[in-house]
UniProtKB/TrEMBL annotation, chains A, B:
SUPFAM superfamilies: Homeodomain-like (SSF46689), Tetracyclin repressor-like, C-terminal domain (SSF48498)
Keyword match DNA-binding: yes
Residue range(s) of DNA binding per entry: 34-53
Pfam entry (one): TetR_C_6
Source organism superkingdom: Archaea
Protein species of origin: Halocalculus aciditolerans
Name of the protein described by the UniProt record: HTH tetR-type domain-containing protein
Gene Ontology MF, one: DNA-binding transcription factor activity
Length: 199, 199
């Protein structure tokens, strides 16, 4: 990034750019995504897009960086107060209808598959994952402290949930398998019932 | 395929072509894989490669089709007789050292991410998955019949194991995360102990 845009675009512009990126990924997939296809979805000028993000890679890293905020915001605004309700709400969101956004999920798996080749993608995915794992582990820890959950290892529980969610998303996309989410939801519920809950 | 090669290459040639495909995928990844890069790894003539497989896509479908045979052969030749031992051996193989073959696993995730775009890939992945699910479910069913396992739904158990294995593989590749396999192995063992085994 050039010096002038180090702090990033103002929030409203940033949101419009992220929305345009989402639409362009849905429409073109990752392989055919360019700054031009993103600009086509952006209401403002193409030069404004280039002013804020030098390359497609810069933009996609910023885009991936918004995922976690959206998930955390959604959990915070869900009607969930106890650790058990908050954990359920988080699992719901992790497994929420990828079929409903399957073009986007398809593009996202392509993007994830590029992490071994593009270090900036990997770093952002790793950062997201560490935060998400910490977010879930904090919920589990609260539940352990409150006596709602058994004396489990919160990080280990978070990792198991994330492995299941990752597997379900990948299978849904690769196999076009509607059942993967339901199977996984049942597996996560069984895991939480038998390994996490105190009762 | 042309009429002359409908039955496919003889076993030894087929094995050499599949070995060459594996090496080319490791070396070049999926995006840069061509019939030429595969031919470079093939001891025999390039024309023989083209004689047996018209396109890279044909060849990769055949390549993916060999995965399951290898897994089943490995389980059959493992020192595992009881359903419990056979289930353990299968999980071991599903989760075996992807880090040791990480270039190949990286290429394989790229290939899987193309399933929504290339129907022939999706069909082969779906076929593999159905066979693998059936293979695992049969082991579980044998265990239920023998009284080693509780009265579980064999297909549901197989799906849960496959979701966990898929998630672990994807996370290992995307995050370069050595721990994903260990975490998953512990989660699968916990799942089998508490949900599958009769004792």
């Amino acid at each position: 990034m050039s010096e002038s845009n180090e702090s990033g675009p103002p929030p409203e512009t940033r949101q419009q750019i992220m929305d345009a990126t989402y639409e362009a990924l849905r429409e073109h997939g990752y392989a055919d995504l360019t700054m031009e296809t993103i600009a086509d979805e952006f209401e403002k000028s193409q030069s404004l897009l280039h002013y804020h993000y030098d390359t497609k890679q810069d933009l996609l890293v910023a885009f991936v960086g918004t995922f976690l905020d959206r998930l955390v915001d959604a959990v915070e605004s869900a009607d969930a107060d106890t650790p058990r309700e908050r954990l359920d709400a988080t699992v719901d969101l992790l497994l929420s209808d990828p079929e409903a956004h399957s073009d986007f999920q398809t593009a996202l798996l392509e993007l994830r598959s590029q992490a071994p080749y593009v270090e900036a993608y990997r770093e952002q995915f790793v950062e997201n994952d560490a935060h998400l794992r910490g977010f879930i582990a904090d919920i589990v820890r609260d539940g352990v402290d409150a006596g709602d959950f058994a004396d489990v290892d919160p990080t280990r529980v978070a990792e198991t949930i994330l492995v299941l969610a990752e597997g379900a998303r990948t299978r849904t996309i690769v196999f076009d398998d509607d059942d993967a989410i339901d199977t996984t939801r049942a597996a996560v519920d069984g895991f939480i019932r038998s390994h996490v809950r105190a009762d």
